[in-house]
Amino acid sequence: MTRAFALLRRSAQLGSGSACVNLGLGYRSGLGGKVDVGLARNWLGLASEQGHAVAQAALSTRA
């Protein structure tokens, strides 16, 4: 895991919806490590609950 990805994960853990979206998309595409669809859905779901349209669209397409 890259340092940038680790920092993004920490921001998401602290409640940043934008970080949750980016982390979810990263896990979905394998950016920063292996593809993990379960973690992608988890982070995108958290962002979706905060009203992030990008997360909602990502969840409706393939994550």
Which helices and strands, and how do they pair?
Layout: H1 3-13, H2 17-29, H3 37-49, H4 53-61
Helix pairs in contact: 1-2, 2-3, 3-4
Short structural summary:
This protein is mainly alpha-helical. The protein has helices at residues 3-13, 17-29, 37-49, 53-61. It has 4 helices and no strands.
Could you describe the 3D structure shown?
The chain has 63 residues and is mainly alpha-helical. It has one domain. 73% of the residues lie in helices and 0% in strands. The radius of gyration is 10 Å and the shape is globular. The mean pLDDT is 92.
The total beta strand count reads 0
Number of domains: 1
Q: How far apart are the first and last residues' alpha carbons, in Å?
A: 21 Å
The H-and-E topology, N to C, reads as HHHH
Main beta-sheet annotation:
none
In the predicted model, the low-confidence regions spanning at least 5 consecutive residues are none
Class per helix and strand makeup? mainly alpha
Strand content: under 5%
Number of helical regions? 4
Approximate helicity band: over 70%
Oligomer: single chain
Annotation keywords:
mainly alpha, about 60 residues
